[in-house]
Amino acid sequence: MSVGGRIAQFIENEGHRVELSVVDDEQQLSELVFRTRGQTFSVAVSELEPNRFSLSTAYEIPDWVRERAHALDVLSDVEIEYPEARFMLAHDDTIFVVTVDYQATDEAAFIEHFWSVVARLRDAGTAAVERMVDRSESKAAADKFIRQFMKGDR
Amino acid sequence: MRDDDHLAPLEGALDDEGLLFTRDDDAEALRITFKSEGDRYFVVGYRDDPNFVMIGSGWALAPDIDLRAATSLANALNVRKKFVKTAIWEEERDALFTVELCVENSEEIRSNFGRLLDALRDTAVEFFATIHDTNED
Fold it and tell me: So what's the ipTM on this one?
């Protein structure tokens, strides 16, 4: 059985429906899609690099905070807190994708840590959404500007 | 779907969550068992009480866990937690986390099923994290 097939079997044994599809025949790259806690995740597996896995999930950016510069600022801030996660805006900046690349010593190690990697990915994504929605930091920046402005000489 | 299968809408809820499940009904009770992230859960209903639905998970308590501490912690969680009831079965040395609901139709639960699962999961995680901390002290 392929690595992708075995990972899919593991996820199914854990109780989750999995869709397995081949993304790139030449690279023997397949994608496994499953849902947990209301969120859809995908695992990219290449048979050519059987110990390397990419887990991704996407979050919709609330339309009232959909401002590219703000979103990019937030994502780069959250990347510092979650250095293993990569963030990327997609679909005309209406969503962001967060990805963790996992280099395992072997497949068993990946499986052992699978749900903690999923949890870490979820934490990173949730942190980014919360940060986007929370405008208190930009308010603090405005307050700082006002305070400095008020100190001007006449 | 049979007329007396009042848990059928919850199969839809499990589908919505992307979870696999099995049915294990008998003359008295309707049961759905499923796993999420490897942990086992169940849904139980009774044929003679179609308004009652219980969703839960059961865990064996390790031999080193003090039952009095476990019961005391269960009480503390029951005071504080919405939805979830924590019970300690002393003879079996099990901890049981359940949500018990009274509904006109279990379709009413469907849109909140994920939230109830999260509540069950979080309560179990908090229970075992606290009880293990207590044991280490």
Answer: 0.83
